[in-house]
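HOLO CASE FILE
Compound: DLL
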Amino acid sequence: MFWAKEIECMSRKGLEELQLIRLQNTVSRVYETVPFYRRRFDSMGLKPEHIKSLKDLKEIPFTVKDDLRTNYPYGLLAVPIEKIVRLHASSGTTGKPTVVGYTKGDLKIWSELVARMVVETGVRKEDIAQISFGYGLFTGAFGLHYGLERLGATVVPISTGNTERQIMLMKDFGSTVLVSTPSYAMYMAEVAEQLGIDPSKLNLRIGLFGSEGSTEEMLAQLEKKWGILATENYGLSEVMGPGISGDCHMRCGMHIAEDHFIPEIIDPKTGETLPPGVEGELVLTTITKEGLPILRYRTRDITSLNYEPCPCGRTLVRMSKVQGRTDDMLIIKGVNVFPSQIESVLMGIKEVGPHYEIIIKRENYLDVLEINIEVSDAALLERFSDLENLKNKIRCELKTVLQIDAKVNLVEPQTLKRFEGKAKRVIDMRAKK
Ligand code: DLL
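Model generated. Tokens follow.
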């Protein structure tokens, strides 16, 4: 039930005392060892000893992804490179990736935190965990791998791809836990069905899904298809990787490992701190990292924090599902639209499947939102009036939620692109004009 009960169920007062000591240590350390932070602090007249309470965290300037790029590859490391035993990098779509380095101590904590996170969902050492994340510079596979091994579970490091083989081995090995993106889990279920295997009859009991957003509706579909408890976890490479937060078995928000990270929610426009419960951008400060400590990192992920005690008994704050990223919010005809809002509507309509594509174009200087979505049953495409009714229904529901019109194209099952890693469902063609 618990991995480290004394921490996971700690009183807020005790936790804050621990956080303050660790924060002060981190601030002093980066001031001494990372010229980037020292320059910033000096230019503001800020000294490590000015951080007297957790409230003083606000005095520290934000760190953003560009700071990692500017200091590429090793400029933000707080230890000499000889002390770094592992490098990972995040897959930026443009320019140089952001590089993160881990000391032996960092790797130990990382595996402990992932072990803690998977135990929260109900994973135990008797489980057989199939890791269907891509192994490589991406933190997902190695992060879960060492955490699950730390717990004592049997790890199957199958990586992504060759989906038919994934299903065969899942069956033969009797895998009980699946680690993947939610979109890949959905695709794997489809491949199993094509092979004549009912995924819910396999041995899987828990899904550990992360690395991309998923709606409640998508998780509910995964639960039904696979006959599992579908849980979600969150993380980002700049701060550590997976293990920063994850669902417990109650599935009512992802507990953040607050003994290692201090979360804040800010207004992404003004940078002002927002109160608990209010949605905004998540900012994280690491308080135990040795290799790459990071102060007030702007994640760009939109979420909110809930400090109410959880029915599971844990006192660690819970973050809500990530609503989207500040940089994936689309502005269509002047209206703010998150792809997750579209997914929620589509997943609620039983005649269409979970595979879709969002296309934004500009026609005659006007934005046009177009959605391609697979119907669940190809026979529907033959029945013109049913098809039109379904399109109208989807259009109306989208309009109610988004306040804008969308063009809906219903396409045959299994014709849209499938994803083995993070899904890319939005094609914004406006920038290309
Ligand atoms: O995706 C770390 C990770 C791996 C987390 C495996 C969980 C499982 P990056 O590649 O650096 O690291 O991408 C980080 O992915 O800022 C979010 O925008 C997004 N993300 C990660 N988990 C979730 C989630 C890993 N549960 C970026 N829900 C983050 C929504 C997520 N978005």
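CASE NOTES: The longest strand covers residues 352-363. The mean pLDDT is 96.
CLOSED: yes
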